[in-house]
Automatic annotation (TrEMBL):
This is YqgE/AlgH family protein. Belongs to the UPF0301 (AlgH) family. Coiled coil: none annotated. It comes from the Bacteria. PANTHER family: UNCHARACTERIZED PROTEIN YQGE, UPF0301 PROTEIN YQGE.
Length: 186
């Protein structure tokens, strides 16, 4: 299958052959940045077992927190689709933004002015140096696709997101969409 070149705003979909990698097995990653010096992304479908309030007790919302990737897992990151409410946001692509003023975000959450459909939080991120991602693409670790979900990417069900992407890819990927996560369970 021919895939696109990686670019800011594109998705990396883990090939079914990635097994045993807790971070990237069956993951869908949004590339937040891609330059000659490297790439940064966030895993969109790996929910952690705690909420934002567990991490920051003075926040009154029970927003889910996702595993963004294996890099800097002690740091909190966020993407959103409300740059008019969050100053200093950086556009990724197609109406999806990264970061911004976190104190404003806390206030928006505490005043019920922002919902989980508008913002997603991550511990850590996924990162690749300048040649690492190309090497992984050449090894058929990822399929690169456009983010056709645009702003609705924040509303996708994490549990079925990878499977849905396999179905959209079609061909032999359809078979993998129903395979067990651990092949030894087959």
């Amino acid at each position: 299958m021919t895939t696109l070149k990686p670019a800011k705003g594109h998705l990396l979909i883990a090939e079914p052959s990635i097994t045993g990698d807790l971070s990237f097995n069956r993951s869908v990653v949004l590339l937040a940045d891609h330059t000659e010096s490297g790439s940064i992304g966030f895993i969109l479908n790996k929910v952690l077992d705690f909420t934002l309030q567990d991490l920051i007790p003075d926040i009154k919302g029970n927003f889910r927190v996702y595993n963004g990737g294996p890099v800097e897992q002690d740091n909190l990151y966020f993407i959103h689709k409300v740059p008019d409410l969050i100053p200093d946001s950086i556009e990724i692509a197609a109406g999806i933004y990264w970061g911004g003023n976190f104190e404003v975000v806390k206030g928006l959450i505490n005043e019920d002015l922002i919902t989980e459909n508008e913002i997603k939080f991550f511990l850590g991120y996924s990162g690749w140096d300048c040649e690492q991602l190309n090497e992984e693409l050449n090894a058929h670790t990822w399929v690169v696709t456009e983010n056709k979900d645009h702003k609705d990417i924040l509303n996708r069900k994490p549990r079925t997101f990878w499977k849905d992407k396999m179905m959209q890819l079609g061909g032999s990927y359809v078979i993998w969409s129903n395979a067990p996560e651990n092949p030894s369970y087959n």
